[in-house]
Amino acid sequence: KGSGYVLSAASGDVYAESLPFDIAPRALMLAFTTQPGTTRAGLPLNPHPTVTVQDEEGETAFAYSGLVTLGIKPGTGFPGAVLGGSPTLNAVSGVATFANVSIDSASPGYVLLASGQSLTGAQSESFDVTAFTFNAPDIVTALRWAAGLSQMPAGYLNRFDVAPNGSITIADAA
Fold first, then answer.
1. Residues 63, 89, 103, CA angle at the centre, nearest 5°?
2. CA–CA separation, 39 vs 52, rounded Å?
3. Which among 85, 109, 132, 167 counts the fewest CB atoms within 10 Å?
4. What is the pTM of this model?
5. Environment class of 130 (CB within 10 Å of its CB; exposed 0-12, middle 13-18, buried 19+)
6. Which residues contact 138 (CB under 8 A, 6 or more apart)?
7. Average pLDDT, the chain
């Protein structure tokens, strides 16, 4: 790896030299450089997961611009949970930041997997996705909306459940 290399060749009185060139390290593996944190179901993961393409020395492979894909590791989180948003991005200068990826179901212990063509994948640290919680005015607004008495303010609500015991669950949109 390096820059400014020049090849030269000589045979008798003939001498030739190449133009200067660089040798970039080969992209080999992925690494989560920003881990996802606990967030609410249906909202973008925060902090946004960032996956970096690295060379054999663990340095960013800035020349890489291929696809990087996230997925939920099987057996983690809620069975059947869906990873929403844009889970596949082109890396920019070897980095893919997933700013609008969300998970639709609350559960502890989610783990994300990152993959890319011809790259060794990476696994995130475990994180939790929580249910959306409201204070009393939010519940009143949701009840008025559910009854058709008002419009839901801008936000992510789309699911409203009342359990047999009378408890109310209001969840984010997926």
1. 140
2. 22
3. 167
4. 0.67
5. middle
6. 170
7. 83
